[in-house]
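Worked example 2:
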Amino acid sequence: MLVIIIRKLGMLLLSSIILLFLTFWFYIRANNLGNQDIFLQFLIYLNRILRLDFGYSSMSFQPVTEDFLEYFIATFELCLIAMTVSVTLGLVLGCFAALHRDRWMDGTITNVSIFCSSIPVFWIAQLLISTLAVSVDWVPCSGRISLLYDIPPKTGFILVDTLLSGGASNWDAFINASNHFILPVFSLAMLPTTEIIRIVRNSLYSVMQENYIKVAFSRGWSSGRIILRHGLKNAMPSILSQCGSVLFLTFTSVIIVENVFNWPGIGTWIIEAIRNNDINVVNAYLVLIGFIFVILNIFLEFMADMSIIFLNRYEGEQI
């Protein structure tokens, strides 16, 4: 375990250094600092990064770090709900497809997931808006909550703040905010769900061919019990090692989803910064989102290695 921890820390250090050099190159090019002492400028840049000092935004005239935290919480809340939906649907449908390999259920789930993965995110979002929001007016299609509600930002999470507002209409505000999540969450969860279905199906199917799984079936155990007790546990290392692609899909899709639904998150923030040539905001986005993405990927790889060690330690466990 110590070797794995040291290896992952080394990967984190190396990835952080590469990310710092890339963002520093963007910083000196954007601010025309190429004719100055590069080494001195890098030390100044590194000192600012360690202090989380990215200057002030030319759009809001506030510290970039404060703006980032506000927008990041809105994005994190949206991604958290979307990933919860994706993981739940992906695990369930992936398990069904693996149990019914080469049958009609497997073919249906696989073909539908392939079809959904081929649809552009912006097209899905526009289709949902035109049908569910404009034509039948079932759900709202813009923002996090209606302008009729004045919710004081206590935590930044709109669903939590509506419940903590303490007003007489806090439940109505919570329902209104929940309705605003429906279309963005569905649009954002589409691609990660199809990827999780593929990963779970392939990983679980290879595990289901093992002899101890066949012995469990011969003893009359139910499919659900076998999958929960042995199937997913042994397939988890393979699933976790491939979850980086799911994170990548989510990070790339959230920018499109937030701009289509006018969601006040990181995606909307960075597009506005690019339009207004706000170099400090763009630099902060590259650095902070890059570090978050690197840390999450290395953490998933670490969990995959830990699960392999756990399985090897208990591989002698009898069914």
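The chain has twelve helices and no strands. The chain has one domain: 25-46+63-313.
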